[in-house]
Amino acid sequence: MHAASVKRLADLERRERHYEKVDEPKSQELEMQPGTTAQPAVTEEWRNVYIDPSGETLPATFKSNAIKTSKYNVATFLPIFLLEMFRRAAYLYFLLQAGLSWWEEVSPFSGVGATAALLFVLVVSAVKAGLEDYKRHVEDKVTNNTPTTVVNLKTGEVEEKKWKDVKVGDVVKVADDELFPADLMCLKTGLADNLCYIRTTNLDGESNLKIRKPVDLRGVPGFGEDEKETMKLPESFRGQLESEHPNRNLHKYKGRFQATYSDSTGATRRTQMPVTMNEMLLRGTLLKNSRHVYGLVVYTGPESRIQKNAAAAPLKYGSFDLFLNIQVYALIVIQAIMCVCLAAGNLIWREEEGKKRYFLAFDQYVAGNYEDSVTYFFLVFLTFWILTSYMVPISLFVTMEIVKFWQAFVFINNDPNMVLEEGNESSHAHARNSNLNEDLGKVEYVFSDKTGTLTSNEMQLRMVSIKGIVFGNPEIRLEELGQEARGPPSLEKFDPRLAKSVQILKDGNFWKCLMNQGGSREEVLRLAGGGPVLQTARTLTKNAIRKEVDDFSGSRGEPEAHIRVESRDVGEFVLGWHIVDFWTNLCICHSLIIEEQPDENGGMKKIYQGPSPDEVALVEAGRQLGFEYCERTISDITLNLQEHQVKFDILNVLEFSSDRKRMSVIARSHDGTIRLYSKGADNAMLERLQSNTDQELLRKTQVDLYDFSVKGLRTLVLGTRVLLQEEWELWDKEYQKAASSLDDRDGKISRVADTIERDLELVGVTAIEDKLQEGVPMAIQTLRMADMKVWMITGDKMETAINIGVSCRLIRRQESVIILTADSEEEAVRNILECKKEAEARMEKNEPVELVVDGPSLNFIIGKEHNGHILERELADLASMSGAVVVCRSSPSQKAAIVRVMDEFEMRKAEGTGNFISRWFRKQDKKIKSKSLAIGDGANDVAMIQAANVGVGIAGKEGRQAVNNSDYAISQFRFLVRLLLVHGQLSNYRLARLIKYSFFKNIAFDFILIYFQIFCGFSGQTLVDDISAAMYNVVFTAVPILLFSVLDRPVSDASFIRFPQLYNRAHSLSNSVFWRTGILDGMIVGAICFFIPFYAAVPAGRDSTHGLWSVGKTSFIALLGAVTLEISLVTRYWTFVYILFVLLSYLLVYPFFLVFPYVERSIDMFDPAQFGTAVNLFSTATFWLTILGVYAVTFGYRYLNRTYKWLYHPDDNMIVAEFESKSDGALAGLEQDVAECERMVALGYGNVVQPDSSGNSENGNSEHANWTKETAA
């Protein structure tokens, strides 16, 4: 969680440097020698990187620094693209169809139509892929050609090189505000304190500055204090870095650097030191406020850390992709069965009827009419396979890509209602994976992080507990007091008791002495309370206080600093000592750095930056109250405590980790006193207190922790310890040994730290408020109204988690929450079963079930089995009954495990019992209808986001790791409501109808050809020419459904939000709906469009319409009108553009049939299917009466069907649509409902006139809400 802190850098400064004299003979020098002819070996465990100013050491060969994120080049584009396309079953199927269509012996169509359709789809996809890859090429070129400066170590001169030309072993110079071209080991900085500052936004999204330092080469020629501006090394210098092999770890590095050089006497010396991430400058990070650095290139190009982490998130496919796969496979099986039946009919007809007709010459066996029945059957089967290939619409796949792209990158990315304005900057929603658009409308489970996701991650100190006494007014907002009120005025407002104690110490001239010794001594540290608590006679006679006060007043060199034990103010003095202990701890024990930024007055202001918002809040609050952290160098820290400046030497920093749950700093005060300052989670700190800690103090502190928690405040416990010089020195030797180790360094440091972080004196507790984001309570209420099960997963204590759950309306009744805790597997089984009984009882009473699970209890549940009970399944069964679940004190790994457990439970529940096939189909149906969604903002949420079906990242203050691994990114939690209820439902609605309609029109077309086989002896003769067939999908029916799929909507956006119950109710693309409306209706319409024109054809006379191509064109135009009327019938959102293209798509067929034959003739083509047919057909009344009859039947049949549904079995959205049309829009009557008004306003839907308690609007006569924000189109 914390970045590398300054202290670890100071530790490295203080580590012993092992110099050893080496004799002059070459055999005693380092392994690398000037003039070496062989390349240095790279061991299996380490890679060796060398510095040799003489240039005689030949470098090893490593990867180029050029990067390549593009997928193709000119030579590889076509083969790679085609391989990617034809790895998909659908495209392989279409390729087979196109290939067979060129086999004239079996194909009823020309190969031109099928091939042209396939090529069209491939060209569209190729253009899309090519444009995307071209952008990558441009970005790669810009990156690879970025200039940087490489140093000649022999002369110190620099030359400009492109990034792509930088090699491992080069030494580069990077100036402020420049990116590092490769992963470097820092050799030298331009600052006097030997530090540099970097910003890692490109790496992990964090904008705060981090500290790095060079390897410790002080005293080595070329690295002196007066040599910071140049990098010129003596020829005797040799450097060797033993580095770990390239990996993805952004936070840890393991290496060892050793240098050999000649000192001023000519003796050869050698020094070596460990290298950690504190000395590494990773590619892509930015140098800030450091003038310049020199660095040794360690990893280049694809081996750099940023490129190692550039792997794409797991590829997820939408539910409709899975649905289509199943349906396409089913249709292929049906197609094969139909082809077998048709081929059998052809074979029977040939033998029984065909040979009777001598003019057909079926008794003459030639190509296409084979005597062998098996061969003949197989070839006819292929004929029918080609004829029925229109059952699977090839245009659907490219249309779906276009529609999903449009939905994601036009509608979602540019939705003005999901834009967060912050000052001059705005943050938009971002769709990173358009494959999942439809799944946004099918979410059943929402798994949410708390901090930064539900809360704003803007921490502010509200209260403190110092030695068991609570201070602070939660109504006082320190952040609002302003800079002019810093110091005593703010302290007085925060709590007058604190201000009084500080002033008493100042008046008695004790403050300076306390600062110099870094706080109170052990005798006072051990005391509980302060202030009035210590004013009783019994307390005043305690030897500890007497000794401390007497010693303090008589031996600190301050003759005026005197106080008697009997003084009535002694309690205030002791409280003052505790205040010093408290704020000194907070001002020293952190990993923040200071950055200067311009202020509005043209001056500079100091900004605290660090990876932990909690630390920033605490230190910022301290500054406001007069306890200021002023400056930090590699070895000391300067504080200004109530206008008295004091400096501490930083000896060690024991960094925070999620395992340790604490951070400690060992510092030496001005008078030489050494103290350990520690802060961390209560469960990690309380167990480390001294065994003789005052039990009453401990009880009060635990009460304070509980009270803070139920107020929803985040807590940290502070502890300190005075160390003897000898004690610290012995421990420090072990620590330095662990820090210098290359094997299990972190583990050894943690174990050594554990030995010193014990026997702490309790100092106090901080209570920080993390405010809920705007609109979170109403957002969660809306999600629950949409019948989603919402989980909040947090690391907070149970009381805090429950309180936040109540605040954000996740928990409705705090007193009725079911709490699950366990300390063993046996207890877990027992408690889960008891909780299930209680949940079932509440469900029978129709009462809400809300569950709280303790994170540590999950250790005994997930992956465990006890007495035949699989505990995680039992927990999932219990959680599935709950509308809301809170998991507290959870770890990042548990977050992903929870998602996995619930997904597996739902699949298992859906399978039920029965045979394998039925269980498999039920499971697939569940996968299509129900999805899980995880939302978070930090790196600890990445595993959960990737484990869920849909991952949403919040672009917050914990970096962009969550966003970079998500499918969709938003800037605030409340936007999730619009993302799911509006964009999710619309995407689901539109894509479902796109799929149904695409199959409907193709099935109808294909069955016209199949029905005709009854009348042509199952010969495979096509009724429609191949040009018309190709134009049917590509031109005549393509645009209306495309526009429908990006524009149509069943109800308005506001209705989706006002009526969350609409969410995921329709299931508009279930198996039954697909086969009824997409397949069966297509067969019926195909029958109408074939049989009516077939039997209505006039067989003779001047106006004959009985010819093959005449009947075919009549059926074709009849079908085109029928499917156009169908799309018009289901459309609910009409626009001028849509009406225009619907009319053009249908009317275009008439001039096409009239003009196209002449186009063919102009290129010397004569096509009997085209020339003269349309002219003759359009001049007959029979044709026009026939198609009008077809339209009356098809439209009338569908109109009656739809009217019946609207009247007697309407969907929910039909009811809402009728409400909209009959009322004054979707929001009519809303002003009568206070709660609904508040909810809609909180979600950004206008400024509703609030009703009064009587139900009337505030102005007394307003009938409707006053809406100031229009819904997005």
How is this structure best described in words?
The strands form eight sheets. A nine-stranded mixed beta sheet has the order 17-38-37-36-18-30-35-32-31, sandwiched between helices. The chain has a nine-stranded antiparallel beta sheet with strand order 20-19-29-28-27-26-25-24-23, with helices on both faces. It has a six-stranded antiparallel beta sheet with strand order 4-3-5-14-6-12, with no helix packed on it. A hairpin with a 3-residue loop joins strand 23 (627-632) and strand 24. Helix 20 (725-739) packs antiparallel against helix 21 and helix 31 packs parallel to helix 35 (1071-1096). Mean pLDDT is 82; it is low at 1-43, 531-541, 553-566 and 1248-1273. The chain is built from 42 helices and 38 strands. The protein is of the alpha+beta class. It is elongated and about 125 Å long.
Can you lay out the helices and strands and say which pair or pack?
Elements: H1 6-14, E1 20-22, E2 46-51, H2 77-86, H3 89-101, H4 111-144, E3 147-151, E4 158-162, E5 171-175, E6 183-189, E7 196-199, H5 201-204, E8 209-212, E9 238-244, E10 255-262, E11 268-275, E12 280-281, E13 286-288, E14 292-299, H6 305-308, H7 319-352, H8 373-387, H9 394-412, E15 420-422, E16 425-427, E17 430-431, E18 443-449, E19 455-466, E20 469-471, H10 488-494, H11 496-507, H12 511-517, H13 522-525, H14 537-540, H15 543-555, H16 570-588, E21 593-598, E22 604-609, H17 613-625, E23 627-632, E24 636-641, E25 644-654, E26 662-668, E27 674-680, H18 682-685, H19 695-710, E28 713-723, H20 725-739, H21 745-756, E29 761-772, H22 776-785, E30 789-793, H23 798-807, E31 818-820, H24 825-844, E32 850-854, H25 855-858, E33 865-866, E34 869-870, H26 871-880, E35 884-888, H27 892-911, H28 916-929, E36 931-936, H29 942-947, E37 950-954, H30 961-964, E38 968-970, H31 975-1012, H32 1026-1036, H33 1038-1047, H34 1053-1058, H35 1071-1096, H36 1108-1130, H37 1136-1147, H38 1149-1162, H39 1173-1178, H40 1181-1208, H41 1212-1222, H42 1234-1242
Helix pairs in contact: 2-4, 3-4, 4-9, 4-32, 7-8, 7-28, 9-31, 9-33, 10-11, 11-16, 19-23, 20-21, 22-42, 24-26, 27-28, 31-33, 31-35, 31-36, 33-37, 35-36, 35-40, 36-40
GO cellular component, one term: plasma membrane
Family: Belongs to the cation transport ATPase (P-type) (TC 3.A.3) family. Type IV subfamily.
Active site: 449
